[in-house]
Amino acid sequence: MEKLLFRKLIADITLRALIITFTIGLIVWIIQAVNYLDFVIDDGHNFKIYFLYNLYNFPKIIHRILPFVFTISIFFELIKYEKNNELLIFWTNGVSKKKFISNLINFTCVVMIIQIIIGSVISPNNQFKARLFLKSSNMDFLPNLIKQGKFIDTISGLTIYINQKKDNNSFKNIYIQEGQFVDFKQKDNQIIYAKEGFLINEDKKLFRLLNGKVISNNDNKLISFEFDKIDYDLSKFTSRSIKKPKIQELSSIKLIKCSFSLMRGKVYKDEIFTCEINKLKNFNQELYKRFVKPFLFTDTYTHMLLSINFFEGTTQLYSKNNKNFYLCIFNFGYI
Q: What is the C-alpha to C-alpha distance for residues 176 and 159, in angstroms, rounded to an integer?
């Protein structure tokens, strides 16, 4: 009987927590998705990449709101049970308050383990996959970014200027420059001017230029020639979006290996990130968020439960229907 009672209580808390989690998570996710619109507007990625990037960042949101959600869920579910006199069923079946609190604390430990798994494994792995989407994507929205009379530097290492835009893929008086600025001291630097051009979407994204001129610097030799038609390959260029994974996107195993190596004065090398001594503090802070903070939140659950037990077991001065009474319990538990 006791097991059935605790199963129902935990099921009610879990159901409330799931509803609140996905409701708040969806709101935060939508707000975050609006902030990431720059991937389409400024960086030229398509909506598929934009959607997948936001979708894979959803576990990060869940990890951050989970402690708050479960604290609220446990507190208000116990209030509901108290108001409906459902807690009396526990006491009449021989369940002591000590055992009642002990079972709930065990449940919070399970929540803590889930939070650690999400924060240390699922969330970093998904964020890393989201970064790979940006890395492997091409500039599908480049035609929409090109506007007449405006310099476009969305693509790293390339500047495009269009004097007139006829339709989505046809342009007049085109200026293309490789590099951040004109510097003929650099090798293989070139400027291209064309009277007309078309964007072609094939296996490679090409800019077909007509009736123009190329000025290039090849091994400190200035070369200039005119052309009737030339295909300029845009697929070799990438967006300015950050492609290297951030610290929060790295796997916990890599962070632990890097941190221990630096503290021992050893060198740790990895292909996707640089393990340097000046980043040790940041690495340790990230590990602290993933593995230590969940213990602190579990401690919060424990003190809140003990506070509820303390107040309800020692004071009869407050009515159970008094909102200030429950607010006092909630604040005391959190403090």
A: 6
